[in-house]
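Contributing new records

If you add data, match the layout below exactly. Sequence lines come first and carry their own label; structure lines follow with theirs. Keep one chain per record. Anything else will be rejected by the validation script.
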Amino acid sequence: MINCTKIGVLIDNIESALDGQGRFIEAHRNYVELLRVLSDTHVDSTTIITSRDRLCEPSLNVEHYRLPGLEKSAWLHFFQNRGAEIDLPTLEDMQRAYGGNAKAMGILCGTIQEDFAGNMARYWQENRADPLAVTDLKNLTVSQINRLQSLDLSAYRLLCRLGCYRYQDVAKIPTSGLYSLLWDIPAIEHRQIITSLRNRSLIECHQGEYWLHPVIRAEAISRLRTSTDWEITNQKAAEFWTESIQQITTFKDAIQALEAYYHYIEINQFELAGKVILKSRNNQWRQYLPLGSTLYRMGCVQPLISLINQIIQKVENYHSERSVMRSICRRLESHNLSELYNILGDLYWITGKINLAITCQQKTIQLATKNLKSLIPQQENKHKIYYLRMLEVDSLLSIGLYQLDLWELEASSQLFQQVIDKAQNTDHHRWAEKASVCLALVNSYSGFHEKAREAVTTSQIIIQELNEHTGRHTYFIQMLGQTYLNLGDYIQAKQMFTTALNFAEKSHYTQVKAKSLSGLAQIYDHQSEFELALTYHAQAIELLDKIGAKCDLAVAYFQLGLTYQNLQSPSSREAFNRAIEIFTQMQAPKQVERVSKNYFTEFN
């Protein structure tokens, strides 16, 4: 009797024997018969085939397994077994950068051992910016992409074009994002081209979303940059992001819409990059606002400052650029620059750079006034004239708010009155209503309580907001809460802060959420519910610190100090000192004086 032993067969890297459709080329058709024999149920064997291309022989019944990236623990075990000097943060960065790829792991480990004496931290410090720094890894990647180029030129072009996407803030691209890069290919062929990349494991996919492995992307974008497709690919990608977001209801929507900015910057289309930030859409507050304003409300502050400044710097230095750039910058300066300064002013304000914020709004007014003078008052200019006048009153209102945060009460009062005088009973009457709410708050701080009470009880903008529940004027609702608080009407104040808080939580308006929490903390402080007050203070400070809202943070520390003072706790000293420190950085001497009076009252 013959004993049969089960055998295992390994056929490695079979892709070199396959054609562009995943079938064996004529010279290797014998593999078909071999695999048919090995897969026969009477043969007690298991056959494993490795291939970077999907095997698609219709006469063979094979099961396909895609190898996932190895987890961090596997990388750690591998490097430990080979005696490398383990630096966990470096290991995590490398595993993430290469998607856990096993082949990359082996190549990296060999390079680190040979060229860096096993010191992975030194290797990564030198090479982290270039995922293709290791020659073996680059050669492997290049050979795969070269093979694709020879077998399927359309799929090759799509792969290179996909290198234009950043895969950072938006890590995965929907199928429609791939279709947008196939502008020169008939739609009937789109699905097959994407399948070609998937079958060769050159593109990652999960639930209809796609992305490139960082190593593949590095080679793809390198080739795209030197091709004639570079500019049009970025244009098509930018148009895709812009058109795919029609309404902004989540932070994800806003971030996706912003992706278009980066594509225009890559091809030096600064005018179009500016228009991305200024493109208005309906948002969760039922407002039709520019993308930049919506992002600001969602707490995206520091990144947006950098993005806007990048455009403005190009505009202001246009005279040193080539003639085409000068033309672009002039158009941007004429139509959009004033609005960019308007948004930038609010961004500087929230970060505590109030003098810069004021300068930005003054530039907005200057440019808007200049443009208004150049427009003839006729029907086709009606919207432009409306918008430029809106920018003028909005900037005056903003400067009033900035002066209020500097505790320049008289200056802020005059500015709010100026807005009322300019906007009342005009197309911009809403700004007069907003300014009235602001002026009421100033009056409540200044001791003019009757004036303040009269203004808040007759405010049409607030009455409308509370009836319609849109959340459009959430910022002014919390201001109204502060006014009621100053007037000693804690029931109305709590109602306003709670309403603003609910709107802010639903719409991710972090600044208003924090200011409302701080207002509620002050109410609980006045009512001697100190434990609740401290809890709300802590929540407000955490949120404001997270988004870098310096002025509001200083005020929150000041209010925390007052609560500790009422508790006769020495912790008040620390809170007051923190408030003074931030106000000093902001160059707000009257706010420093305001805090110091409470500080010295207690400690002197």
